[in-house]
Design goal:
The complex is a heterodimer of chains A (about 500) and B (about 290). In chain A, a hairpin with a 4-residue loop joins strand 11 (about 420) and strand 12. Chain A is of the alpha+beta class and about 500 residues long. In chain A, helix 3 packs antiparallel against helix 16, helix 5 runs antiparallel to helix 7 and helix 7 packs across helix 8 (about 185-195). Chain A is about 40% helix and about 20% strand. The radius of gyration of chain A is 33 Å and the shape is elongated. Chain A starts with 5 loop residues before the first helix and ends in an 8-residue tail after the last strand. Chain B has about 290 residues and is mainly alpha-helical. Helix content of chain B is about 45%, strand content about 5%. Chain B has ten helices and three strands. A two-stranded antiparallel ribbon of chain B has the order 1-2. The N and C termini of chain B lie far apart (about 85 Å). The chains are: A alpha+beta (about 500), B mainly alpha (about 290). The interface of A and B includes residues 21, 24 and 385 of A. Strand 1 of chain A pairs parallel with strand 3 (about 30) of chain B.
Chain lengths: ~500, ~290
C-alpha cells in the first residue's frame, strides 16, 4: 500500500473540513435550450401526456341513472373503479395486478430494445421537470443568463423574475394536485366544493400534498430524483445489452476531440469539444463518457450536437441512437445488422403476449354474477330432532348489473336438501329466491338440511347453484356439507 | 477517522480509507441534501419527544406537553361509537320484533349486536353458533324445551330457567330412583322403553316399560314422548337430547334427574341487547 504524500493528505483534510468528502454539494444544472427533431418529439409527448392527465377527469360518460358520469373515476367512497364502459369492483383487484405485470414487462421489453425512453420521455418526473424548465427559461432566460443572474448580486429584475417563476410553478403544481383528486371524486362537483370550502379534509390534504410534491420534485429536486431516489436507474443495466439502442456518442468518429481549427499534422475527430452536449443535458452529464446511471436517454444532446455539426460542416448525428455492438463494428470499419430478435427481447415479448392474452381473456369473460359460500365455522353441523343434519352457510351474492335482480339458489349433490333463510323467513324449500339490489352484494345466512353424507367422516361435497332470473347467468360454488362420522349417527 | 485515503488508479476516484482484507471502498459521496434530511428527522424526533409521551421514569413517565394518551383516545372512540349507535339501539328497544325485521338495516344491526352479546355471554355454555353441548341445549337445532318463537326466546333470556327469579321458567322432574318412587329394575325397564322412542331399541321386551311410562312419565312427557312445552318437559321422541341418549344417561336421568339452570339476564343486559340477542338466536337455524 502506497503512502500518500503530505501535500495530498493536507488537501484531503481541507476537503473534509469543508464537509465535501463524504457528502457532495449539489452541482446545479443549467440546461441550455435546444431545437431539433428530438426536442420537437419530446414536446409532442409532453403535450399528449399532460393533456391526458389534466383533461381526462373532465371527460363525461353516460352510464345511466344513479351512476357516475365520469369516464375515468376511481371512486373510493363507492368502492368502484369506472373506466369508460368497464366497471371494476374491489374483488377485481387482480386486473390491477395484471395491468402492473403488463406494464413492468412492457417496460423491460422497451428498455432492452431502445433503452430508457420511459425515463427520457414519459416518466412524470421528466415531463413535469421539462415543463418547469420551460417556465424557468421563459421567465429567467436561457442557461447563460440564468447562470449570470445566480452568480451576481440580487437585483430587482432578478428578484421579480424569481418570484414570478415560483408563482407559476406553484400554480402548475396546484393544478396538478387538483387534477389528481379529480380521478377519485367527481371533477365538476369537487371543483365547486373545493372553492366553496365544502370539500372533505382528505380532498384539501391530498390536493396540497400533491401540489407540494410536484413543486418540490419538478422545481427543486429534478435530476436528483433520478440519480438518488429512483430505483429504476439502479437496475436498468440488467435490461440493457450491447444490442440495445441507446443515446450514444460515436467515439470512433469524434475522437480525438480537438478544439478550434483542424490542421493536417494533428489527427482530429469530428468532436470539437464545444460542450454543447453537456450544457444541453438536463441531468448535467457528459454523454461522451458512455452509458451511465444518470443518463435518462432523452436525446437532447443529439439536437445540440447536430446544430454544431451543421455549423462545422460535418455530417450530423455524431451523437445518435445506436447499439454498442454497432458502434464497436463501425469503429473497426465493419458492418453489422440490427438484431431486435434476441433471447432477451423474445422472452419479454412472450411474457407480455401471455399476460395480455390472459388479462384480455379474463376481461372478456367477466360475468355480472358472483357467488361466495362460507360454511359456518361453528357449529360444523347441527343434529335435528328428526335425525336429519343441518349446516349453516353465509352466502354472498354479487349483482353487478344495474338493476335489482331475483336470483334462484339451489343445491346439487345432496339428495332431499332443504334450504332456508331466516332473516327474511324464506324456505324451507329446495329452491330459494334471493333479491339483490342493483350494483351491490347481498349477504344471506342460508341453512341446508339433509341426511348425513356419503363420505367417511359423514361429509360430502355440495354445489350451490345460483342463477340470475333476469339474464339467465349462472354460477356454481362448490362447498362441503358436513355431518357426524360413521357410527355416531 | 479514516487515514489511508488513496486515489484509485482505475477509476481515478478517492477511496474512503476503509479497507477489509485488502478490499478498499471507493468514495461515492452522498448528496448534501440527504444529510440535511437526516438532520430534519432528528429535529422531528426531538420535537416529538417534547410533545408526546416519551421518556420513561421509575414510577411513571413524561406525558408530553400535549398530554396525549392512547387510553383516553380509546375511551373517546368508544364513547363516539356508543353515541353513534344510540339511535339504532333505541329504536331496537322500542320497536316490536316484526317492525325490526321489516327494516333490513335495523335487522343487520340487531344481528351484529346479538352476535357479539352471544359471544360474550352465552357461548361458554351454548357453544359457538349455538351448537350446544351435553347439558346445554343446542339452540341452532330447534329442539326447544320451552318454545322457539321470538317471544319464548326473549322470555327465557330475560328471566332464565330455575334462576331464582320470580318469573323464571320452572320445572321439576321427580327423583324416581333417589326418592324410591320406582325400583331399580323398573327404572331399567322404563329406560329400555324410552330408548325405543328415538329409535335405539335394546332388543328386550318393552311392555313393562311402556306400562310404567304411561303411569309415571306420560303426564308430562306425553303418551308418545312428544314432550310438553307448557310444563317444560323435554321431547323424548327426538334425536336431540339435552344430557345424552345412551342407556346409562337415561337411567341416571330417571333415577336422580339433573336439572340445569340458566341465569336471568335482565340485570346484566339492557333491553335492546336482549332483543338483538333474541333475534340472533332465533336466526341460528332453530327459530320458529
Amino acid at each position: 500500500m502506497s503512502r500518500i504524500s503530505k501535500a495530498e493528505r493536507q488537501l484531503q483534510l481541507q476537503r473534509e473540513d469543508a464537509g465535501e468528502h463524504l457528502y457532495a454539494n449539489r452541482v446545479r444544472v443549467y440546461p441550455k435550450s435546444v431545437h431539433g427533431p428530438v426536442r420537437r418529439f419530446k414536446w409532442a409527448v409532453l403535450i399528449v401526456c399532460l393533456g391526458i392527465y389534466y383533461l381526462l377527469p373532465w371527460l363525461r360518460w353516460n352510464r345511466g341513472v344513479n351512476q357516475p358520469d365520469q369516464a375515468v373515476l376511481l371512486s373510493i367512497s363507492h368502492e368502484r373503479f369506472y373506466f369508460f364502459n368497464l366497471e371494476f369492483w374491489p374483488q377485481d383487484i387482480y386486473y390491477l395486478t395484471g395491468l402492473l405485470i403488463m406494464a413492468a414487462v412492457a417496460l423491460f421489453l422497451v428498455t432492452s430494445l431502445i433503452g430508457r425512453v420511459w425515463c427520457g420521455y414519459t416518466c412524470p418526473q421528466t415531463v413535469w421537470t421539462d415543463l418547469f424548465m420551460w417556465i424557468e427559461r421563459l421567465v429567467e432566460g436561457d442557461r447563460n443568463e440564468r447562470m449570470k443572474r445566480d452568480a451576481s448580486p440580487l437585483t430587482l429584475d432578478t428578484a421579480w423574475r424569481k418570484v414570478l417563476k415560483h408563482a407559476v410553478w406553484l400554480g402548475i403544481a396546484f393544478w396538478t394536485g387538483g387534477a389528481w383528486i379529480m380521478y377519485y371524486v367527481d371533477a365538476p362537483t369537487v371543483t365547486v366544493e373545493f372553492w366553496t370550502g365544502a370539500a372533505s379534509t382528505e380532498v384539501y390534504f391530498f390536493t396540497f400534498l400533491f401540489t407540494a410534491t410536484t413543486y418540490l420534485l419538478a422545481g427543486w429536486a429534478r435530476e436528483q430524483v433520478c440519480t438518488y431516489m429512483c430505483p429504476w436507474p439502479r437496475f436498468q443495466s440488467a435490461m440493457l445489452d450491447e444490442q440495445s439502442i441507446t443515446v450514444t456518442y460515436q467515439g470512433w468518429r469524434g475522437e480525438p476531440r480537438v478544439r478550434g481549427k483542424r490542421h493536417d499534422e494533428v489527427p482530429a475527430g469530428d468532436c470539437i469539444d464545444c460542450g454543447a452536449c453537456v450544457t444541453a443535458c438536463p441531468t448535467g452529464i457528459d454523454i461522451r463518457d458512455g452509458i451511465q446511471l444518470e443518463c435518462i436517454n432523452c436525446g437532447l444532446c443529439i439536437d445540440a450536437c447536430n446544430h454544431v455539426m451543421e455549423r462545422t460542416g460535418r455530417p450530423d448525428y455524431l451523437i445518435t441512437w445506436d447499439t454498442l455492438a454497432d458502434q464497436a463494428a463501425k469503429a473497426e470499419g465493419r458492418q453489422t445488422t440490427l438484431s431486435l430478435l434476441r433471447p432477451r427481447t423474445l422472452i419479454y415479448a412472450g411474457a407480455l403476449v401471455i399476460a395480455v392474452a390472459l388479462m384480455t381473456g379474463a376481461l372478456a369473460m367477466r360475468t355480472s354474477i358472483g357467488l361466495s359460500v362460507l360454511h359456518d365455522r361453528a357449529p360444523l353441523f347441527v343434529r335435528l330432532p328428526d335425525g336429519g343434519i343441518r349446516n349453516g352457510y353465509t352466502v354472498k351474492v354479487i349483482n353487478k348489473t344495474q338493476s335489482l335482480a331475483l336470483f334462484d339458489l339451489h343445491t346439487e349433490g345432496l339428495g332431499g336438501a332443504s334450504l332456508a333463510e331466516s332473516d327474511e323467513g324464506l324456505g324451507p324449500a329446495a329452491k330459494l329466491g334471493l333479491v339483490v339490489k342493483a350494483d351491490s352484494v347481498g349477504t344471506f345466512r342460508i341453512t341446508v338440511a339433509g341426511a348425513p353424507g356419503r363420505l367417511g367422516d359423514g361429509s360430502q361435497a355440495i354445489d350451490f347453484v345460483l342463477r340470475n332470473t333476469a339474464n339467465g347467468e349462472q354460477t356454481v360454488y362448490r362447498s362441503l356439507f358436513m355431518g357426524p362420522p360413521e357410527g355416531t349417527r | 477517522m479514516p487515514t489511508k485515503i488513496e486515489k484509485d488508479i482505475v477509476s481515478g476516484r478517492d477511496t474512503t480509507g476503509h479497507e477489509w482484507d485488502g478490499i478498499k471502498e471507493l468514495n461515492t459521496p452522498l448528496p448534501k441534501w440527504w444529510l440535511y434530511v437526516l438532520y430534519a428527522t432528528m429535529v422531528w424526533a426531538a420535537v416529538y419527544v417534547v410533545l408526546y409521551p416519551s421518556v420513561p421514569g421509575i414510577t411513571g413517565y413524561f406525558h408530553g406537553i400535549l398530554g396525549y394518551s392512547q387510553r383516553n383516545a380509546v375511551d373517546d372512540a368508544v364513547r363516539a361509537v356508543a353515541t353513534q349507535r344510540a339511535g339504532t339501539m333505541d329504536r331496537i328497544k322500542v320497536l316490536s320484533f316484526a317492525e325490526i325485521r321489516r327494516e333490513p338495516e335495523l335487522m343487520a344491526a340487531a344481528n351484529t349486536a346479538g352476535r357479539i352479546a352471544f359471544a360474550n355471554n352465552c357461548q361458554p355454555c351454548h357453544a359457538a353458533g349455538g351448537g350446544g353441548q351435553p347439558g346445554y341445549p343446542a339452540l341452532a337445532a330447534g329442539a326447544w324445551i320451552w318454545g322457539g318463537t321470538l317471544g319464548d326466546i326473549q322470555q327465557t333470556i330475560v328471566y332464565g330457567i330455575r334462576s331464582g327469579d320470580p318469573k323464571a321458567r320452572e320445572s321439576q322432574m321427580p327423583r324416581f330412583g333417589a326418592d324410591g318412587v320406582l325400583k331399580p329394575d323398573e327404572i331399567q325397564a322404563v329406560a329400555d322403553y324410552v330408548m325405543t322412542l328415538y329409535g335405539r331399541p335394546m332388543g328386550v321386551d318393552v311392555a313393562p316399560g311402556r306400562r310404567l311410562f304411561a303411569e309415571n312419565c306420560a303426564v308430562c312427557h306425553g303418551d308418545a314422548g312428544q314432550g310438553d312445552r307448557e310444563k317444560g318437559a323435554p321431547r323424548l321422541a327426538s334425536r336431540v337430547h339435552l344430557y345424552g341418549d345412551d342407556r346409562a344417561t337415561v337411567v341416571a336421568q330417571i333415577t336422580a334427574p339433573r336439572m340445569g339452570v340458566m341465569p336471568a339476564w335482565h340485570a346484566r343486559l339492557d333491553e335492546a341487547t336482549v332483543k338483538s340477542l333474541t333475534l340472533y338466536v332465533h336466526a341460528l337455524g332453530g327459530g320458529e
